[in-house]
Write a structure and sequence with these properties.
Protein name: cyclin-dependent kinase
CATH topology of one domain: Transferase(Phosphotransferase), domain 1
Order of helices and strands: HHHHEEEHEEEHHEEEEHHHHHHH
Strand order of the largest sheet: 1-2-3-5-4
Strand content: 5-15%
Bound molecules: adenosine-5'-diphosphate, magnesium ion
CATH class of one domain: Mainly Alpha
Catalytic activity: L-seryl-[protein] + ATP = O-phospho-L-seryl-[protein] + ADP + H(+); L-threonyl-[protein] + ATP = O-phospho-L-threonyl-[protein] + ADP + H(+)
Organism: Sphaerosporella brunnea
Radius of gyration: 32 Å
Helix content: 25-40%
GO biological process, one term: regulation of mitotic cell cycle
Distance between the termini: 67 Å
Number of helices: 14
Oligomer: single chain
CATH superfamily of one domain: Transferase(Phosphotransferase) domain 1
Structural class: alpha+beta
Family: Belongs to the protein kinase superfamily. CMGC Ser/Thr protein kinase family. CDC2/CDKX subfamily.
Length: 454
C-alpha cells in the first residue's frame, strides 16, 4: 500500500527506497542481537555464575521492542512531505572569505567597507550589521534588511546582495554586496556642475523603475535619499540600504511613523499617520528629483515642525479640498495653520524656472501633499517628462567620476541620519508669526513650538 502522501513516481521510488533501507537496518540489528545472544550463551556456559540475574537482563534487553517494530512499520507508512526550498547551508566566515581593503562609511545601522573576495578576486562591499547592543537575538529589522534585499536583488537598479557571512560571534553578521563606485550624495557634493536634464531623467527613470519593482513586490523602502542611492561607472543607479525596508500589505498594517530621514519624510508621516503606503517612497523621490536638479537637498528642516513648515512654504498649506481629512491626522489636531489664500499655492514653478512644464508637473505630482493623489511609480514612469526633449540619455553615456569609495574614506557633509528606532514625537504647535513669518527660534521651528513626548 502506498502512503496517502505519495503521488508521483519519484515519491513512490523514494518510499520504496526508505522501506528497503529500514528492512536492511532491522535485519542487521537482528543479526547483531543473535550474535550477542550466542556469545552470551557461550560465556554463560563457560562461567555460569557471572551471568546476570534474570530480572536485570529483562531491564536491559531491548529485543522486545525490536520484535514489535516490524508490526508497527506495517501500520505506520512513512509520509513524504516535499517542500521546494533552497538548501540550507552554513554562512561562510568573513575572515577566510574576504580581505578588507578600506573603510567606506559608517552609517546609522552599519559599517561599510570595500573588500576582495579571496576566491574570485572580485571587489565587494561588506556591511556589518550593528547588533552589539541587541539582547533579544537577531533583530527583526536586520532580518528585514536581508529578506527584502534578497527579494529584490534581481532588479538591475537594486544593489545585488551576494551572500551573508559571519564573524566569530553571532553578533558579527555581514551582508556582502556588489561594490558600487559612488553614492549620489557624495557625487552631488563633489560635482562641479549638476547633472544635465537628460542625465537627471535617466537617473530618475531608473530610480522609479526599481521603486515600482519593490512596490509590486509589496516592499516599502522607507529611507530613499541620495546617500542610499549608489551609482556605478556605467551610469546605473542601485538602490541600497534596506535597513528600514519592510513588507506591507493591503490594507497596510499599522506601521511605525518614525521612518525616512527628516528631509525626505512625507507630510503624512510628519503629521503622525500610523498607516501609510507606497506614497511615502514617492514623496522621497520627489525630494531626490529636486536635489538632482540643484545639487542641494530640497527641504532641509531643522526639526519635524520646521520640516512641515518648509514643505507648506514650498507647496502651500493644505486645505480640506487639496488634502481631504488631513486635519484628522494625530499631529494636525494640535497645529494651527494660517488661513490666507496666499499660502495655499505652490512655489515649485518659481523655484525651478528652467524646468519644463512637464517637469514641474511631475515634480508636483510626486510632491503632492495628499498621499492619495500622489503619483505612483508606475504612472510616473509613463509621464510626458520622459518622452519630451531632451530625452533620457543612454545610461552608458553618463559621465564617469573617480571613485572616492574606491580608495579613501569619503568626506561627509552634514545631513540628518535615518531615524533612530522608537516612538515618533507628537507635534504641538501654535502659530506665532505664522508659518511664513520666518524662523525666529530654532527650537520653535518657523513659528510652531515643538513638544516631545505624549
Ligand atoms: N554596495 C556598496 N558599494 C559601495 N558603497 C556602498 C555600498 N553600500 C553602501 N555603501 C556606502 O556606505 C554608505 C552606508 O551604507 P548604508 O547601507 O546606507 O548603511 P546605513 O544603514 O548605515 O546608512 C552608503 O551611503 C554608501 O556610501
Ligand atoms: Mg544609509
Amino acid at each position: 500500500m502506498s502512503s496517502r502522501w505519495t503521488d508521483t513516481a519519484e515519491d513512490l521510488a523514494e518510499a520504496t527506497r526508505l522501506k528497503e533501507e529500514k528492512a536492511a537496518k532491522r535485519a542487521a540489528k537482528e543479526r547483531k542481537r543473535r550474535e550477542a545472544a550466542a556469545a552470551a550463551a557461550a560465556a554463560a556456559a563457560a562461567t555460569p555464575t557471572t551471568s546476570p540475574p534474570a530480572s536485570k537482563r529483562q531491564k536491559t534487553r531491548n529485543d522486545a521492542s525490536d520484535a514489535i517494530a516490524p508490526e508497527r512499520a506495517k501500520t505506520k507508512e512513512p509520509k513524504l512531505l516535499r517542500f521546494n526550498g533552497a538548501t540550507i547551508s552554513a554562512c561562510r566566515h568573513v575572515e577566510t572569505s574576504y580581505e578588507r581593503l578600506n573603510h567606506i562609511e559608517e552609517g546609522s545601522y552599519g559599517i561599510v567597507s570595500r573588500a576582495r573576495d579571496l576566491e574570485t578576486a572580485e571587489i565587494v562591499a561588506l556591511k556589518r550589521l550593528k547588533l552589539e547592543r541587541e539582547t533579544d537575538g537577531f533583530p527583526i529589522t536586520s532580518l528585514r534588511e536581508v529578506t527584502t534585499l534578497m527579494a529584490s536583488r534581481e532588479h538591475p537598479n537594486v544593489v545585488r546582495l551576494r551572500e551573508v557571512v559571519m564573524g566569530d560571534t553571532l553578533k558579527d553578521v555581514y551582508i556582502v554586496m556588489d561594490f558600487v563606485e559612488h553614492d549620489l550624495k557624495t557625487l552631488c557634493e563633489d560635482m562641479a556642475e549638476p547633472f544635465l536634464l537628460s542625465e537627471t531623467k535617466t537617473l530618475l527613470q531608473q530610480l522609479l523603475s526599481a521603486t515600482a519593482y519593490l512596490h509590486s513586490h509589496w516592499i516599502l523602502h522607507r529611507d530613499l535619499k541620495t546617500s542610499n542611492l549608489l551609482l556605478n561607472n556605467r551610469g546605473q543607479i542601485k538602490i541600497a540600504d534596506f535597513g528600514l525596508a519592510r513588507y506591507t500589505g493591503d490594507p497596510a498594517p499599522p506601521l511605525t511613523q518614525l521612518v525616512v530621514t527628516l528631509w525626505y519624510r512625507a507630510p503624512e508621516l510628519l503629521l503622525g499617520a500610523t498607516t501609510y503606503g507606497f506614497e511615502i517612497d514617492l514623496w522621497s523621490i520627489g525630494c531626490i528629483f529636486g536635489e538632482l536638479l540643484t545639487r542641494n537637498p530640497l527641504l532641509q528642516g531643522k526639526n519635524e515642525i520646521d520640516q512641515l513648515s518648509k514643505i507648506f512654504e514650498l507647496l502651500g498649506v493644505p486645505t480640506e479640498s487639496t488634502w481631504p481629512g488631513f486635519r484628522r491626522l494625530p499631529n494636525a489636531k494640535s497645529l494651527t495653520f494660517p488661513k490666507h489664500s496666499a499660502t495655499t499655492g505652490s512655489l515649485l514653478r518659481t523655484k525651478f524656472p528652467l524646468l519644463t512644464k512637464a517637469g514641474v508637473d511631475l515634480l508636483g505630482a510626486l510632491l503632492r501633499l495628499d498621499p492619495k493623489s500622489r503619483i505612483s511609480a508606475d504612472d510616473a514612469l509613463m509621464h510626458e517628462f520622459f518622452r519630451e526633449e531632451p530625452r533620457p540619455k543612454a545610461a552608458e553615456m553618463l559621465p564617469t567620476f573617480p571613485s572616492k569609495a574606491g580608495q579613501e574614506k569619503r568626506r561627509k557633509a552634514f545631513s540628518p541620519g535615518a531615524p533612530v528606532r522608537g516612538d515618533a514625537p507628537v507635534l504641538e504647535g501654535v502659530v506665532g508669526g505664522g508659518v511664513f513669518g520666518g524662523v525666529e527660534e530654532e527650537a520653535a521651528g518657523a513659528g510652531f513650538s515643538l513638544r516631545m513626548g505624549r
